[in-house]
Design a protein that fits this description.
Layout: E1 5-10, H1 18-31, E2 36-41, H2 43-46, H3 53-57, H4 59-72, E3 80-84, H5 89-98, H6 104-108, H7 111-119, H8 127-130, H9 132-142, E4 147-150, H10 152-172, E5 180-183, H11 212-220, H12 241-249, H13 253-265, H14 270-296, H15 301-328, H16 330-349
Parallel strand pairs: 1-2, 2-3, 4-5
Helix pairs in contact: 4-14, 5-9, 5-15, 9-10, 11-14, 12-14
Length: about 350
C-alpha cells in the first residue's frame, strides 16, 4: 500500500444507492488497497441543507448505515479510517483559516451549489452552503489528502481545494499537498424514473441494501421509452434508463447486445428487458448483501470502527493545525504576548 493518503466520504443522510456506487464507491474499493484511506462521515456538510433537530438526531444511525454500506461494497475495515466530522472541532478551526484564501465570486461559480440549494428547497443559498467547498478543502487538507476520488458533481469542489492549497503554500510555505482528482468511469446514474440522477430524496434510487424482491419491484417500475406503446414498436436504446443500467451492471455483454438489437427492431417487450436487468442487478448485489450481513452480525463493530477512526483522525488533524498556525505566524503572536505578560506578572509579584 502506498504511503500517500486518500480522502473520501459522504453526508450521513441515509443508505447509499447504486448511484453512489458508480459515482464514487467503486473507485474507493479499488483505490483503498493502494492508499492510506480516510472516510469522512460529513455531518457538518449535511447541516448546509438538512439541519433540523430531527435530521441531527438521525446522524448516528445514518452514519452506522453508511459505513456498513461502504464495507459491504468491498472496503476492508483494516484498510480504512472512518471518522465523524463534527467530532473533530479542529476541522472548523482550519476552515476559518482557509476561508480567507478564496473569494465569494469564485465560490459562486461552483455550479453544483445552486443545484444543491434548489434540491433542498431553499429560496436563498445559506452562508454555509456557499462555503461548502471551503469546508471540504479543510476536510481534505486536514489529513493532507493527496488523492480524492470524485464524481462529476464534486470535481469543481475539489478544484477549489487545489487552489486553496496552492494559495496557502505560496503565502506561508509548503504545508499542503495539492490533491489529485481521480474521476469515476461512470460519473452519474440516471434515476429509475428517468428524471435526472439517482437520488435518495427523489425516491428514484436502488439502495445497496435493497432485498431481491425490492430490486425486482423497482426495476419493473422503471421508466423506459415513452413512445413505445407495444412490444412490436421499435424502441430507443440511447437515453433509456433500463439499458443504461444494463451497460453498467450486466456483465453478459452478449445478452445486452442482443436485447438492444431486438429492442430497436421491435422484437422484445419491456418486461423481458427489465426481468433480465433485475436478475443482473441482484447478481451484482448478492455479494454486497452477504458482506453486509456479516458486519450486521457483529453489533457494535461499526461503532467501534467510527470511534477509533475519529480518535486517530483528530490526532492527525491536531498536528496539521499546529503546523498551519506555525506557518502562518499565529503561534508567534500569542507567544510574544504570553512572554511579555509573564515578565509583567513577575515584576508585579517582586517585593518592593
Amino acid at each position: 500500500m502506498s504511503s500517500a493518503r486518500m480522502l473520501t466520504g459522504d453526508r450521513p443522510t441515509g443508505r447509499l444507492h447504486l448511484g453512489h456506487y458508480v459515482g464514487s464507491i467503486a473507485n474507493r474499493v479499488r483505490l483503498h488497497q493502494r492508499y492510506e484511506s480516510f472516510f469522512i462521515i460529513a455531518d457538518l456538510h449535511m447541516l448546509t441543507t438538512r439541519n433540523s433537530r430531527e435530521d441531527i438526531e438521525q446522524v448516528a444511525r445514518n452514519a452506522r448505515e453508511m459505513v456498513t454500506d461502504i464495507l459491504a461494497a468491498g472496503v476492508e475495515p483494516d484498510r480504512a479510517t472512518f471518522y465523524l466530522q463534527s467530532a473533530i472541532p479542529e476541522v472548523g478551526d482550519l476552515n476559518t483559516l482557509l476561508q480567507n484564501l478564496v473569494t465569494v465570486p469564485r465560490l459562486e461559480r461552483v455550479p453544483s451549489l445552486k443545484e444543491m440549494s434548489r434540491d433542498a428547497g431553499k429560496e436563498e443559498m445559506p452562508y454555509g452552503l456557499l462555503g461548502y467547498p471551503v469546508l471540504q478543502a479543510a476536510d481534505i487538507l486536514c489529513v493532507k489528502g493527496q488523492v480524492v476520488p470524485v464524481g462529476k458533481d464534486n470535481a469543481a469542489h475539489v478544484e477549489v481545494t487545489r487552489e486553496i492549497a496552492r494559495r496557502f503554500n505560496h503565502l506561508y510555505g509548503e504545508v499542503f499537498p495539492v490533491p489529485e482528482l481521480i474521476m469515476s468511469e461512470t460519473s452519474t446514474l440516471v434515476g429509475t424514473d428517468g428524471s435526472g440522477k439517482m437520488s435518495k430524496s427523489k425516491g428514484n434510487a436502488v439502495a445497496l441494501s435493497d432485498d431481491p424482491a425490492t430490486v425486482h419491484r423497482k426495476v419493473m417500475g422503471m421508466y423506459t421509452d415513452p413512445n413505445r406503446v407495444r412490444a412490436d414498436v421499435p424502441g430507443t436504446v440511447e437515453g433509456n434508463p433500463v439499458f443504461a443500467y444494463h451497460d453498467v451492471f450486466n456483465p453478459d455483454r452478449e445478452q445486452v447486445a442482443e436485447l438492444k438489437a431486438r429492442y430497436r427492431a421491435g422484437r422484445v417487450g419491456d418486461v423481458e428487458v427489465k426481468e433480465a436487468l433485475a436478475v443482473a442487478l441482484n447478481r451484482f448485489l448478492d455479494p454486497v448483501r452477504e458482506r453486509r450481513a456479516r458486519f450486521e452480525a457483529q453489533p457494535g463493530l461499526v461503532d467501534e470502527l467510527i470511534f477509533a477512526g475519529t480518535e486517530r483522525t483528530r490526532a492527525e488533524v491536531h498536528r496539521t493545525l499546529v503546523e498551519v498556525r506555525r506557518a502562518m505566524g499565529l503561534t508567534s503572536a500569542y507567544t510574544q504576548v504570553r512572554r511579555r505578560a509573564e515578565r509583567y506578572r513577575k515584576a508585579v509579584a517582586a517585593p518592593a
